[in-house]
Amino acid sequence: MELTYLDSNSWLLDFDGCRILLDPWLVGPLVFGNSPWFFKGTRPIERPIPDDIDLILLSQGLPDHAHPPTLEQLPRSLPVVGSAGAAKVAQGLGYEEVVALSQRQIYTWGDRLQIQAFPGSPIGPTTVENAYVISDLHAGTSLYYEPHGNHSSLLKELPPIDVAIAPLVNLELPLVGPFIKGKESALELVEWIKPQYILPTAAGGDINFEGLLLSILKASGTPEEFQDCLRERQLETQVINPTPWTPTRVPLASSASSRSS
């Protein structure tokens, strides 16, 4: 399994040659609600969109996960799997094969990959976006992804998962609390799914942010502090803090099924 962090929430996941582009924001600015005065993200360095993609996977319909300018640059023939909100974005851009996964639903890509959706982040009062467990059916390995730290207790029903990608840092708003949940949520996740490795997402990379939101946001925690917490709790999961845009080969000792005991 080879994982490449592409800044923010974006990842390239390579399962022995099967390549998934996950939540890509890779070109142009990131703006919410056409309000750059409130929040705007830009990249100081132009990065190429990865090629030889087999599948686009989107966890949410918000632009930091289903980023229209990036999706406009990708071939419309690529299959897209996503939450209902993300699928709507892809369909509006003319993608030919779009699958909206509801929670607990499974999508299978050929005979190689299985993607199962789980409840993820609540967006507004009625919408819950997706988390995913991706299984390599040939290698017997698995990966879990949720970008805001909202992890469903349904995961406790599963056998151990080899790799997790989740926030390890809190991003908090005054009077509201964390809208991205790091340490405590990630510790609970590790206890539930017992991954060999966990990689941070959502709060890193080579990106410039500006706007009113930045003046009130508070970040707390680091990957190093989280590794210390794991040791204190005698949890064997190792933190890998990836270098953006540099492939990280994850050395899996064995498949998750052999660790289920």
> Could you tell me how far the N terminus lies from the C terminus, measured between alpha carbons in angstroms?
23 Å
- The tally of helices reads 5
Helix content: 10-25%
Strand order across the largest sheet: 8-7-6-3-2-1-20
CA gyration radius, whole angstroms: 17 Å
The low-confidence parts are: none
Describe this structure in words.
It is a single chain. It contains 5 helices and 20 strands. It has 261 residues and is α/β, with parallel strands linked by helices.
Itemize the secondary structure elements and their pairings:
Blueprint: E1 2-5, E2 11-15, E3 18-22, E4 30-31, E5 40-42, E6 55-58, H1 68-71, E7 80-82, H2 84-92, E8 98-100, E9 106-109, E10 113-123, E11 127-136, E12 141-145, E13 163-166, E14 170-173, E15 177-180, H3 183-193, E16 197-200, E17 208-210, H4 212-216, E18 218-220, H5 223-232, E19 238-239, E20 248-249
Parallel strand pairs: 3-6, 6-7, 7-8, 12-13, 13-16, 16-19
Antiparallel strand pairs: 1-2, 1-20, 2-3, 4-5, 5-17, 9-10, 10-11, 11-12, 14-15, 14-18
In short:
The chain has 261 residues and is α/β, with parallel strands linked by helices. It has five helices and 20 strands.
Features:
single chain; 261 residues; alpha/beta; seven-stranded mixed β-sheet; 5 helices; 20 strands; globular
